[in-house]
Structures are given as structure tokens and as C-alpha cells.
């Protein structure tokens, strides 16, 4: 006897492009976490610090939207990074109840160390794929992002 949940999706569902992207993301995230752990940093914290570095003055709400996580998740990470002296909150120049996020000197140093680890992971990928395939992959991923944003 067959139950309704035995075949809820097509047999080829796990062969879809979106699943391939997700599997690659899981693998990369796991490697980032593994390699960043000796620095006392998680991949999520690296991502947060990178975003603040690239766009100083972001608010927690803006970061949450950008990272597609809850404001509570951002607040928790910001509090940890602030306790470590890597992030500083400063009052917004026009909105007195809004706090902007900025890297401290310690945050810049931590980000520099963490980014060297991430560069190593990227080099591993590029070496395995070769320069041509690595460039193609980057271009295809940019195209995927554009297509999905436009849809």
C-alpha cells in the first residue's frame, strides 16, 4: 500500500539547480566554520563583520534584512562581537533611537585574519576548478542571482 507522503515530489527533485546551489553552500559554510573556529569566529560572524566593513553605519535592522535573518539573530551576534570589542554602536546622526554599527580596530584585525582564512578556501576552490571554470562559475552565479532578483 502506498502512503501519500512516499512520493511528495518528483524523483529528480534533488537534481535541481537550487539543490545543487544549496549543497555547495552547505559545504562552503561547513568549511568556513571549521577553518574559522581556531580564530574564535563563526562564519555568520565573519559575514556580519564583512557587511559592516563594506557598509559602515548599517543598523541591526538593515543587517537582518540584508542577511535574511531575524533582527534577534543579528542583535545576538552584534552583542557578542561588541563584548569582544570588535564592533561599536554609535548613535545615528538623525534618528536618536537608532544605533549604527562600526568596526573597531580589534574588529578590523579579526576580520583581516578571518578573511585570510576565507581566501584560502576560495583558492582551494579556484585551484580545483582552474581559472577558466572558476570565472565561469562566478559569472553563472551572478546570473542566477540576477534572474532570481528580476523574477
From TrEMBL:
Official protein name in the record: MarR family transcriptional regulator
UniProt xrefs under InterPro entries: HTH_MarR-typ, MarR/SlyA-like, WH-like_DNA-bd_sf, WH_DNA-bd_sf
Record domain HTH marR-type: where: 14-146
UniProt-listed PROSITE patterns: HTH_MARR_2
Taxonomic placement: Bacteria, Bacillati, Actinomycetota, Actinomycetes, Kitasatosporales
Species the sequence originates in: Streptomyces doebereineriae
PANTHER family to which the protein is assigned, alphabetical: HTH-TYPE TRANSCRIPTIONAL REPRESSOR YETL, TRANSCRIPTIONAL REGULATOR, MARR FAMILY
Amino acid at each position: 500500500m502506498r502512503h501519500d507522503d512516499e512520493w511528495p515530489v518528483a524523483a529528480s527533485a534533488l537534481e535541481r539547480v537550487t539543490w545543487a546551489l544549496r549543497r555547495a553552500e552547505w559545504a562552503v559554510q561547513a568549511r568556513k566554520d571549521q577553518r574559522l573556529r581556531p580564530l574564535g569566529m563563526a562564519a555568520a560572524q565573519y559575514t556580519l563583520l564583512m557587511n559592516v566593513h563594506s557598509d559602515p553605519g548599517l543598523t541591526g535592522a538593515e543587517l537582518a534584512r540584508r542577511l535574511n535573518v531575524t533582527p534577534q539573530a543579528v542583535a545576538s551576534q552584534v552583542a557578542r562581537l561588541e563584548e569582544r570589542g570588535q564592533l561599536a554602536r554609535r548613535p545615528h546622526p538623525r534618528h536618536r533611537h537608532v544605533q549604527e554599527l562600526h568596526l573597531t580596530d580589534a574588529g578590523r584585525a579579526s576580520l583581516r585574519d578571518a578573511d585570510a582564512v576565507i581566501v584560502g578556501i576560495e583558492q582551494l576552490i579556484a585551484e580545483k576548478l582552474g581559472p577558466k571554470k572558476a570565472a565561469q562559475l562566478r559569472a553563472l552565479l551572478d546570473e542566477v542571482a540576477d534572474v532570481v532578483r528580476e523574477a
